[in-house]
Amino acid sequence: MLEKHVRNIYDYVKWQNEWRTKTINLIASENVISNTVRKLCGSDFIHRYAEGHPGERYYQGTEYIDKIESDLRNDFKTIFRSTHADVRPISGTNANEAVFSSFIKQGDIVMVNSTPGGGHISHHLAGSVGKFTKNVIDLPLTEDGFHIDIGSARDLIRICKPCMIIFGRSLFLFPEPVRELKNICSEYRIRIVYDAAHVLGLMAGGKFQDPFEEGAFIVTASTHKTFFGTQRGVILSSMGNSEWQKVDKGAFPGSSSNHHLDTLVGLAVATQEMISFGKEYSEQVIKNAKALGRAMKSEGFRVLAEEFDFTESHQIAVNVHEHGGGRMVANLLKENDIILNMNILPGEPLRNVTNPDGIRIGVQEMTRTGMKTEEMERIAHLIKECIIQGKEVRGEVNRFREDFTGVRYSFDEMLKDLPSPNNL
User: Fold this and answer.
1) H-helix or E-strand containing 111?
2) Within 13 Å of residue 81, how many CA atoms lie on the same side as its CB?
3) 83 near 237, Cβ under 8 Å?
């Protein structure tokens, strides 16, 4: 019986691997790692511990991971022009937890993007922020729902005097007004925390915005959305050493013990790929997102933020209320091997969160498989055939993906003869 159960697990993994290479994946929070990175997965590091910092571990036997981690930390500092980088968090939310626990005290006021405004769950009462204070206030939005109302935000800051403002979103189409609110935050000694989970790869390529140059105190992120690494987190800052020590303790032992060395190794290689190909990749991602927005509009969908050319990131937002709502549309597309997620839209009541009007579409993974603007037009047409015309398009989707099975913006071609060290 146990043997059969294990064989079933092997089958599930096999089927997952086979299935997802045939799908059009438009989940905005996912990406694919390169074959070069895959070769390193499952090494001996998957068994090991390395608490503390390189050269200052609480375990022996960490000489090699010390070198990898030190170099990775320096790479992040170079890419984002920061003084400090902690690469130990094992997720973006884990990184947020380390920061929030260091600078938010019970009773403090924190200003965030609302859930309908795209804010991430870790920024809210139900997530990490709610563990440290219950005084969470939504930032005011402009009428379009995708931009912060700067004048109203300044007025609210003067009234509430928050200890922290958290920028960054889960539905994240446009840059945040860091520069515009920098002076008033400095006046009231408000820390600006920028959660770059979704846009870290675009920032690494010199696109979207530069939070530190604009006035952010600290940047947190996950490393597997537009930044095409393994699933981990990172904390970046140019704050003074004394304040950084708080973050350091928040990361360890505050929010983690061992930090999953196997994925750290993969991230180190993916970061080198980002250094080499990030500019070209991020430019194509944004081109593709805009092209998909225009194509979806021309195919008859209500694509939001048309007046701003739909997006400046990897995402677009579509109101599909007239087609049955986000849940129905996402489920129907999944049955046809087009994978995306339902998403609450600006202006919707929170009660809609489990059955919202919207869908969120991200193009970063399909961009990494080599798709460009022409393919975005094809994807929009397939979605129209499925949702508006009621056609079964799974076969077309699978045939379409056959031409996009590799991973671009990587070392795969130049290092294709490099064997996996796990097989030596």
Assistant:
1) strand 109-112
2) 11
3) yes
Residue 353 structure tokens: 């969160």
> What is the C-alpha separation between 422 and 419, in angstroms, rounded?
8
**CB neighbours (10 Å) of residue 70?**
14
Sequence-distant (6+) residues with CB within 8 A of 338 are 23, 24, 26, 379, 382, 383, 386, 393, 397
Verify cis geometry, omega within 30 degrees of 0, for the bond prior to 177. no
**Which tokens is 275 given?**
């250094």
Q: What is the pLDDT of residues 200-238, one digit of tens each?
A: 999 999 999 999 999 999 999 999 999 999 999 999 999
3-state percent helix, strand, coil for the chain, nearest multiple of 5: 45, 15, 40
| pTM exceeding the 0.90 threshold for the entire prediction | yes
Q: What is the pLDDT of residues 15-59, one digit of tens each?
A: 999 999 999 999 999 999 999 999 999 999 999 999 999 999 999
The string over 278-310, giving b where at least 16 C-beta atoms fall within 10 Å of a residue's C-beta and e elsewhere, is: beebbebbbebbbbbbbbbbebebbbbbeeeeb
% of the chain residues with pLDDT over 90:
94
Nearest to 31 by CA among 264, 360, 364: 364
d(Cα 131, Cα 136) in Å, to the nearest integer? Answer: 11
Q: For tokens 């489920």, what's the residue?
A: 331
- CATH 3.40.640.10 given to domain 38-270: yes
How long, in residues, is the chain? 424
Alpha-carbon torsion, ordered 164, 167, 169, 175, to 10 deg: 170
Cβ–Cβ under 8 Å, residues 228 and 32: yes
